[in-house]
Amino acid sequence: MEKSEILVTTTEHIPGRDYEIIGEVFGLTTQSKNVVRNIGAGFKNIVGGEIKAYTELLTEARDIAIDRLRQNALDMGADAVVMMRFDSDSISTDMETVAAYGTAVKFK
User: Fold this and answer.
1) Fold of the 5-105 domain
2) Where is the signal peptide (predicted)?
3) H or E element: which one contains 103?
4) pLDDT of 29-53, one tens digit each?
5) Is the pLDDT assigned to residue 67 strictly greater than 90?
6) Ranges of H-type helices in the chain
């Protein structure tokens, strides 16, 4: 099975599928944007509105976290991940940590 074939769902049950629980899986990443983008974000903070550099940072971090979650599930022999959730936190003014976590399951 390929990593991209690992089903990831936020639901507790996958309709029409029976499975056994393997265990907890997660994917973590910490991302930071460069100084030039941080300066631009600082100016945007003065006038208001969306700070696109940080939106991009969080989108990239989310994608990496899910990719690592899938790899963790694949390494455990899972077919899917149920109850997937995100958690995020700021480490400093320009770094964000994103965790994707859930329960790895094997189809019967």
Assistant:
1) Translation Initiation Factor IF3 (3.30.110)
2) none
3) strand 95-107
4) 998 876 555 555 555 555 667 777 7
5) yes
6) 35-47, 52-75
